[in-house]
Fold this sequence. Notes:
This protein is of the alpha/beta class.
Amino acid sequence: xxxxxxxxxxxxxxxxxxxxxxxxxxxxxxxxxxxxxxxxxxxxxxxxxxxxxxxxxxxxxxxxxxxxxxxxxxxxxxxxxxxxxxxxxxxxxxxxxxxxxxxxxxxxxxxxxxxxxxxxxxxxxxxxxxxxxxxxxxxxxxxxxxxxxxxxxxxxxxxxxxxxxxxxxxxxxxxxxxxxxxxxxxxxxxxxxxxxxxxxxxxxxxxxxxxxxxxxxxxxxxxxxxxxxxxxxxxxxxxxxxxxxxxxxxxxxxxxxxxxxxxxxxxxxxxxxxxxxxxxxxxxxxxxxxxxxxxxxxxxxxxxxxxxxxxxxxxxxxxxxxxxxxxxxxxxxxxxxxxxxxxxxxxxxxxxxxxxxxxxxxxxxxxxxxxxxxxxxxxxxxxxxxxxxxxxxxxxxxxxxxxxxxxxxxxxxxxxxxxxxxxxxxxxxxxxxxxxxxxxxxxxxxxxxxxxxxxxxxxxxxxxxxxxxxxxxxxxxxxxxxxxxxxxxxxxxxxxxxxxxxxxxxxxxxxxxxxxxxxxxxxxxxxxxxxxxxxxxxxxxxxxxxxxxxxxxxxxxxxxxxxxxxxxxxxxxxxxxxxxxxxxxxxxxxxxxxxxxxxxxxxxxxxxxxxxxxxxxxxxxxxxxxxxxxxxxxxxxxxxx
Length: 641
């Protein structure tokens, strides 16, 4: 019976129609609000005007004389890629002594004097990263409230004109052209998620790549004044205050007592100090510690009963802190705008709300409910099933919680004050991918539809991972930016460019994972939860791993034609395919070492050792501290003696 089930699973690999007819992210139609569209036009008409023509150009890239790092960066990118495409370098000039004149050949980026004289406005509906991109005569104007908006406009323009696409930090595509047109741009666009952050090792460690993938670029330093679990760990460490003020904490001193006024006033002073020390800071986190404890004093128990639980108590506490700090800011730093966040996480995830059938929405559970104007909630759906849509029955609890937080904040006019900390990490099993292919696109769209302004997706931050890491990063960044993109089309385009001549074989390998994971979901209780261990032996029979290795070897064979014609490209593609072999080799070593021949052991070990080092794959799970590196060294002793 076991062999029969394996055969059924493997047969799915050959049935490519399994996924060609199964869309995990249906293409959405553009949503229009106040003339802002959530999707970009597929094409834009030409004007007959050319930015570059036959190796020449009269165009200049105009930036403000006081432009920030983001504006200077996108100006340099436009200059670089237009030169790479056409051989022509456009000059970058400051806006000093320049004014708007539609006969001038300018590409104006950001809040320049050219923009200021154009008659165009940046309206509140553009939020932080929405942009306008408009052609007026010979002049092109790109701008938004935040310089991240201009980054997006610049890259979108390059995509329209030379097909620029960033598939990975080391896989960039653009067309070679002798003539680059000025298209008839008339776009007012806001991304699906306004502020986008993907905290994976690959993205976070490369500011240029993060910017190119339209991830929000903090052009200053330390934009988060404080972040994470801060109430004790950052503001009130027990080593400093615990002995003298035990009543500031719960009995085990693992959380603060939110009812203690003296504690709150000291926390306010500590937050003031943090803000003063970070001139670029925008966000202040008032985050409870990473455990499920609470203060059980009479005042806290009574407050939670009144305010609908820990989430309501934390909101009330954050309101008070924010008001006190805001008064101080008005007197000392009137130019600063600080936003205060509290966690809706584990014990505080449940909103202080009840369902009102007559109004068809959630309403507060207590009179006098308030969300101060500077307060945001950071909802963390850590218990979600990430192999299923956020709107699925499996995620009914998380969907209800987010909907309730959304309704509560909207009732106070705080429609864009919801931040999401979501998860794209198999925390206990880096060596086989998390079961979330494509689902995140629906998650992002659903979250944005419920008023989420800022998504921080936590990927694998302490190691690279072996299987389809680049594909996941590409599709996640793209769908966070634009929900109208079709996930399966993104995958097809990515595999074609990233794996080149091996694309056919890698498509087979990718479809294997999608179909085999579906089989495991249906028959082995396989899960996309972040704590789920995807590497257990029960999921990976030896025959399956051997088939996976065979498929990757077939991909290598498909590269033979490139080996002679383009040796450099061959090596790049060969290494990328060999990276995909790490998962089956690792799992065979982990579960079936005794079934391998000595020749196989030695070959697999050499490849595993080399490619894990090359691609900086060091950990088997979160906070593993080079555990994979140590495991490979242990296997060396076992194999070679």
